[in-house]
Amino acid sequence: DAALVALGSSEADALLRSLTSREILVQQDQSRFPGTKEYLFKHALVRDVAYDSLDRAHREELHALAGRWLSTLGEDAATVAGHLDLGGQSTLASHYWEIAAERALTANALADALTMAERALAFAETSTTGFRRASYLDEAFHRLDPRSADRESAVSAMEDYAYDETTRVLAEGARARFDDARGGGPEVNERLARVRDAAARLGRSDEVARCSAALASRAAFRGDFAVAEAEAKRLLDLSLHEVHGARVDAYQTLAIIRQAKGAVSLALDARRSAVQAARAASLKEREAILTTNLGFALSSVGARVEAREALQSGFVLAETIGSPAAVRHAQMNLLGWTSLYGNDRRLDAHLAETRAEADAVAASQWAAPDRSNLGVIFYRGAELLRSNSDVALERARTLLRMAVESYRNLGHLDVLPVALGMWAEAERLCRRVEEARTVAAEAATLLSSGAPSLLNEAPVFLTLFKCCNDLGDEDGALFATRERARVA
């Protein structure tokens, strides 16, 4: 009833009584707004016809009045913004879209946050509001899919709206992390470190944590454990000052380091701590990714059932929050499970599209160079090694070679040796034994010289042994046998 008055009705009470007596409206027992009476249309069709009967100008006027009235009652910001937008009040609506976007990010409604932040940014009137809204948009993209080409619009907007030293540093950090997500080269390390140090001088601990997390992952992947551990310590120190999500990245980095060093039990503890930290911080997309990482780690130690349960749990959470990046990461780890244990009908529905996309990559000979995408290619290739089909084995050979080349170019040394070993096995199964021995020998040499390995090293030496044995290379076979016993 109060709404009708706000929208200009001078006879609201009489009108409502009349419509109620004719059973067009039904009065509710309670109203969501204190001190008011609430009514519903008995039939949605009547409501829709009434709405459509309004001419455009009248409809806009009433939406604008409704939005302003609802805003005085503390209604949800997205509802207010929607009315104001329909009322032609887009600039005022953008203020409420910004509030709604921030709340959606907190609630892990990432797709909604993206739409709301885009709408808010479109009507920014100052550099301050423009930069803030662009940063919300970048965060939404980052949590949905950090490598997305569409994220470029958010990063560019941050750069365009930057208005002082702090915002310029934040924009530079966003650009560096975007390039990192899209497979940027070694120069990204320098840029991230420069932004991290500048942010520290400016007292922006949140930006320090973001850059430090990216640097930690990059260092861990290339086997530079001293740098990775230093960044992990920095993140743990920042977490004591309640920097959002810092503890999550610290534990994830420590998990990679410990697993690559062979401290499997400690690595599992760190992965579980990372999942718990993400849950405590209400970072659902991180929780999904880290849960599937835990499943991957459990797979590598033979905990087949527990691993599958963790993988499925992480996949379901990723789908629930609608994060393509988390879903793709889960699919990568699911493929890792099937490459070890074979097909499982309960997982096939999750992997059909992913397998098809990976197989298409083998034909096109090109793949996006981000970690998850390369992991899908690698594990699909490893999975195909189980096939007796010459076509499938050739596809496996192509995929594994592509994975090796990309891992080498990106400096992902933690997976390079075993990827080389898998490629060698594909060459051997395709009856290219000389080529297989060359590749397997490179992998074995890396491992024997102390190269880090996130994956099980034993298959590398088994493949080398088979190749040497087939070629009559007794010394090589003996070396492979000795090294396999050492890593076992």
Question: Could you walk me through the main structural features you see in this protein, from its secondary elements to its overall organization?
Answer:
With 488 residues, the chain is mainly alpha-helical. Helix content is 76%, strand content 1%. A two-stranded antiparallel sheet has the order 1-2. Helix 8 packs antiparallel against helix 9, helix 12 packs parallel to helix 14 and helix 17 runs antiparallel to helix 18.
List the main descriptive attributes of the protein structure presented here:
488 residues, mainly alpha, two-stranded antiparallel sheet, 76% helix, 1% strand
In summary, what is this structure?
The protein has 488 residues and is mostly helical. It is built from 25 helices and two strands.
Question: Please, what is the oligomeric state?
Answer: single chain
SSE order? HHEEHHHHHHHHHHHHHHHHHHHHHHH
Low-confidence stretches: none
Biggest sheet descriptor: 2 strands, antiparallel
Q: What global shape is seen? A: elongated
Q: Report strand order across the widest sheet.
A: 1-2
**Helix content class:** over 70%
**Distance linking N and C termini:** 77 Å
Strands, count: 2
Mean of residue pLDDT values = 93
* Beta-strand proportion: under 5%
Alpha plus pi helix count: 25
Question: SS-based structural class?
Answer: mainly alpha
Radius of gyration: 28 Å
Topology:
Layout: H1 2-6, H2 12-21, E1 25-27, E2 39-41, H3 44-52, H4 56-72, H5 77-86, H6 90-106, H7 110-122, H8 127-144, H9 151-161, H10 165-181, H11 187-201, H12 205-221, H13 225-239, H14 246-260, H15 264-280, H16 284-300, H17 304-321, H18 324-341, H19 345-364, H20 371-384, H21 390-410, H22 416-429, H23 433-448, H24 458-471, H25 474-487
Antiparallel strand pairs: 1-2
Helix pairs in contact: 4-5, 5-6, 6-7, 6-8, 7-8, 8-9, 8-10, 9-10, 10-11, 10-12, 11-12, 12-13, 12-14, 13-14, 14-15, 15-16, 16-17, 16-18, 17-18, 18-19, 18-20, 19-21, 20-21, 21-22, 22-23, 22-24, 23-24, 24-25
